[in-house]
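Weekly sync, protein design subgroup
Attendees: M.S., D.O., the rotation student, P.L. (late)

Item 1: inverse folding check
M.S. brought a backbone from last month's batch and wanted to see whether the design step gives back something sensible before we order anything. D.O. pointed out we never logged the input encoding, so this time it goes straight into the notes. Structure tokens as presented (134 positions):
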């Protein structure tokens, strides 16, 4: 019976030895897979960081361009207002000059009419004077 017990113990020891090796192999394999997964996750995080950086740069460029466009539009608007003001001043000056010319012409017409009337009155007075003498 001793032989049977010793044989059983030997078989038991041998099966435990095989089980420990399998467990060690499985643990090593799982550790390697976990390391590969962590490395892959690190690469993906690195790529995501690059994508975020590029997106941030794109947003900054878009904001800069929008700001420049707004400044250009403001400058254009200011120039348009300035031109409109100058056009208004030129039109007012021209209207003033036209009014002065028209007033001058009217004054000349009145002066001529007054002179003509005075000449006619003087002529009538001369005619009356001659008629009275004769």
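Designed sequence read out in the meeting:
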């Amino acid at each position: 019976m001793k032989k049977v017990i010793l044989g059983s113990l030997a078989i038991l020891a041998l099966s435990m030895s095989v089980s420990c090796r399998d467990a060690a192999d499985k643990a090593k394999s799982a550790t390697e897979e976990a390391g590969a997964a962590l490395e892959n996750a690190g690469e993906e995080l690195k790529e995501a960081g690059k994508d975020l950086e590029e997106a941030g740069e794109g947003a900054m460029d878009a904001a800069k361009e929008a700001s420049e466009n707004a400044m250009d539009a403001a400058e254009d608007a200011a120039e348009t207002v300035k031109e409109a003001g100058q056009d208004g001043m030129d039109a007012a000056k021209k209207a003033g000059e036209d009014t002065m010319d028209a007033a001058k012409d009217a004054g000349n017409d009145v002066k001529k009419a007054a002179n003509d009337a005075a000449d006619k009155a003087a002529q009538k007075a001369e005619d009356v004077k001659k008629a009275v003498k004769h």
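Discussion: The chain has a mean pLDDT of 81. DSSP finds one helix and no strands in the chain.
Action: P.L. to compare against the previous round before Friday.
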